[in-house]
Amino acid sequence: MVGREVKEQPHLFRVVQKNWEVWQQRQSWVLRNRGKLEELIATNAAGAYLAIPARYVIAAPLWLPKSDPVTIKKMAEVELDIRGLTSKAGVGIHVSYATENQLLVCGQIFPEPFPTLFCHSAFGYVNASPLFAQLEENAVHLWQEGLDIVVVFTREKEPVYWETIPFPSLNTELLSWMNCIYFSLKEADILPAELKFINYLKSELLTPHFCIISITTQLSAPPLSEKLPLCDWKSPSRRTMEIARRKRKNYVLVGSLGGGLYLLFIATLSMWAGLRYLEANRMRHKIEALEPEIRSLMEIQKQWVLLGTTIDSTGFPIEILHFIVKQIPAEGMWLTQFEFDNQKVTISGETESVSIAAQFFSGISKILPQMQWDMPPPSLLSNNRAKFVISGKS
Fold first, then answer.
1. Rounded-to-integer distance, Cα 143 and Cα 222, Å
2. Number of folded domains that form the chain
3. What DSSP element (H or E) covers 372?
4. Residue 344 belongs to what domain range?
5. Strand 139-145 vs strand 195-199: parallel, antiparallel, or unpaired?
6. 244: left (phi > 0), else alpha (psi -120 to 50), else beta?
7. Same structural domain for residues 285 and 370?
8. What is the pTM of this model?
9. pLDDT tens digit sequence for 124-143
10. Is residue 116 exposed (0-12), middle (13-18) or buried (19+ Cβ within 10 Å)?
11. Is 314 helix (H, G, I), strand (E, B) or coil?
């Protein structure tokens, strides 16, 4: 797991079954207290880690090309925005698996508005609860968090996806639910072919048919990982604390420099009064020498202004993508492909009905009339969605 070695002894809050727990990391994790979150917060100092229950954080696995961390985060944010999964609270990125040329990242979409209790100043670092757990390799895990059952899928030992279902649920409901998730992730090559089933619930369950082995543990939840995850997302309370800290540092800096700057200003002012006249004369001579060149540049500027009106930026790929995204309805449509090759644009996707695809085609035809657009009749898929392909030429 990508994370940080922690030298201090941090506290971590997480919910197991129906109780919140406070753990402290020493040689290993030690349970310090158990109870209601409001009561536990009052007895702990600021800067603790908070494992947000999985129900509050949406997991979105993405395949991305390998790059530096900043570029990966930007690419993930763009991909999530296209899928309509952005949030004003922001997103977090966790690298789960790597191939030679690609990275499998787990995007975390945090809720907006952020739950008030989770904004407490006691919490300095925040992330989804599955990222704090020590999980098994290539496995599906099942445990209880509050009034939810959490299922977490891993590739190697890193979480790639999780969902929740109300607790309690029937065995048949759990199996059907896990089967649906598994086949969806397997089709996208998110999961390996064979998985283990790790059951932390206090009940015997049938092993999902896609698992090669079933393990029922006596623990109530997975143990905590020895390495805490990198928390690249910051809660509103954490951002507020950092802003206040920077302001205090600025106040101290300004106060210490203020006296010295004032003395320097007095000395400089006396010199400035004597030099001002000489500077004015030098500037006047420079202006007189530059006047012919300035007039020449003004003529060139006028020509560029006239030329600028003839440039049409709507033919640029990024502008075309911008206008296309603006036509996507709020619901009922998913883009799967956008390709720009040799002045030809190809768009494909799925809609809940043929009429939505027709309205989308009509919208981009009107907003980009400089291109010739064509859409064959959409085809109906097995899930009753309509698959469409739209092409445009300049």
1. 8
2. 3
3. strand 372-374
4. 314-393
5. parallel
6. alpha
7. no
8. 0.60
9. 788 899 999 999 999 999 99
10. exposed
11. helix
